[in-house]
Amino acid sequence: MSDETERALKYAQGFVDFVNASPTPYHAVKSVKSRLVEAGFTEISERSNWSNISIKKGGKYFVTRNASSLIGFTVGESFKNGNGVAIVGAHTDSPCLRIKPISNKTSEGFIQVGVEQYGGLIAHSWFDRDLSIAGRVYVTENGQYVPKLIKIDKPLLRIPTLAIHLDREVNTKFEFNKETKLVPIAGQTSIDKNELEAAAEKKKEGHSCADDPELQLTPEQFVSVQTVIQRHNKSLIELIAKEINVEVEQIEDFELVLFDHQKSTIGGLNDEFIFSPRLDNLTSCYTATVGLIESLELVHKQKGIQLISLFDHEEIGSKSAQGADSTFLPDILKRLTAIDFDGNGSGDYFHETMAKSFLLSSDMAHGVHPNYEDKYEKKNRPQLNAGPVIKVNANQRYATNSPGIVLLKKVAEQVKVPLQLFVVRNDSPCGSTIGPILAAKLGIRTLDLGNPQLSMHSIRETGGTFDVVKLTDLFKGFFEHYVDIDEKILCDHL
Fold first, then answer.
1. Which residues contact 35 (CB under 8 A, 6 or more apart)?
2. Where in the chain is the domain with CATH 2.30.250.10?
3. Residue 487's CB: how many other CB atoms inside 10 A?
4. Radius of gyration, CA atoms only, the chain
């Protein structure tokens, strides 16, 4: 095995481990935080007055919002107020199924869990998969309401398909109602002790007690919303409580999603593929983080600020307090540009800095599919393991333009990373990214790119093993060389 191959497999395995630890945006942010802390980054809070925080040249910092979005940055030793920021943007969320606020269901002796669709998932890919539960749980603890992360490492649920004997057209037309058919089973009422106890209690009552004055709520007994035990299956809640080591009564509420229990893995005849959930867009989160950390080698020479911005809620339009269409990135940039790094007194450097800055909007790209080659534009057919893809769209669904391509080409030449180009067919709609949103919000020059993959938005996606290190090297090179290369690219000099 060559040194190059060994290095690529090392980075790919690091990414696989990252995915397996990160079934939700909350876990992804935690995974990124742990790597930044290990590299010596300091956590700062939006709730603090930054004039009282010592942010210095040569420093490295990160801040989170909602525990599902994160901005990390380093300040070059040679930074001067008004210099540019090299930004890599990505998103922490992926299409999935989320447990409904009231999820307790039973049918034909089965315990079921009500779920709602998050984002544009390929819904049929969630059938006949071993599913588990992960997310954020709020509990009462020492008089406070504290979030706990949960990831249950056990297959708990499954959405079974109907046998072919009962649906002879299943191989020619697999259509289903997402409200009534996309409902996972979690157990059986005839075996579950809580269901048996509830049935026995109901049988013993034998009559309605809704109007019994002795059973009416007193003001002290009133609760504004039903408890989690009333809204969800009791055995499920008991399992959640056990997993995070609390009593059931401590659980106030939660945001839980279903995830594929099968691990991300490296596969293929020559280890050339990554078979995995959530390639879109944990690939970009991982490579951006590692690229930023590795660029610390030259922080003593850097003239700019190097920044990663990882947002939640891209898959549902980015319009949230922690999405790319929020104030999160503008707020952090305004705070940074208000700091007097040079000792010349405070000033408004925000607009000057934005004019000198650049955003790489990193989201996964469509690799060419060997069985559906007719879906791709003839000359723009990205291959897995052939390098990051620059995404172009004349209607600004992607924010790429020619000065940006020139910039990225020069960065890629410095670090010896091959690039590919992609444009959709004229008879096909084009998705979008956080790139156009942030370009319009900040007036910042932007380019859209990402690694190629197959089966985007499926529960199991396929990417290139050797592309992980390429994107990491590209981001590292962008952070290290952006300011010097940008000075040579004239944009408004016609």
1. 289, 290, 293
2. 96-205+222-260
3. 11
4. 25
Is pTM beyond 0.85? Reply is yes
Element counts in the chain: helices (H) and strands (E)? 11, 20
Nearest Cα residue to 329 out of 46, 56, 67? 46
* pLDDT greater than 90 at residue 222: no
Cα–Cα distance measured from residue 210 to residue 266, given in angstroms and rounded to the nearest whole number? 58
259 and 99 in contact (C-beta within 8 Å)?
no
pLDDT digit string, tens, across residues 139-187: 999 999 999 999 999 999 999 999 999 999 999 888 999 999 999 999 9
DSSP state of 77: T
Give the right CATH number for 3-94+277-486 from 3.40.30.10, 3.50.50.60, 3.40.630.10, 3.30.70.890.
Answer: 3.40.630.10
Inform me whether the pLDDT recorded for 297 exceeds 80.
yes
CA pair distance 463, 454, nearest whole angstrom: 6
* 29-79 tens-digit pLDDT: 999 999 999 999 999 999 999 988 899 999 999 999 999 999 999 999 999
CATH 3.40.630.10 domain position(s) in the chain: 3-94+277-486
CA distance 421 to 429: 17
369's enclosing H/E stretch is: none
| CA-wise closest residue to 471 among 381, 401, 382 | 382
The token pair that represents 156 in the structure block? 């708990």
The CATH superfamily label for domain 96-205+222-260 reads Aminopeptidase i, Domain 2 (2.30.250.10)
CA distances from 317 to 68, 85, 87, 178, 327 (A): 15, 25, 20, 21, 15
Least confident of 29-38, 82-91, 206-215, 298-307: 206-215
Percent of all residues in the chain with a pLDDT value above 70, rounded to a whole number: 96
DSSP per-residue letters across 84-151: -EEEEEEE----EEEEEEEEEEEETTEEEEEEEEESS--GGGGBT--EEEEEEEEEEETTEEEEEEEE
**Buried b / exposed e along 321-350 (16+ C-beta atoms within 10 A):** ebbbbbebbeebbebbbebebeeeeeeebb
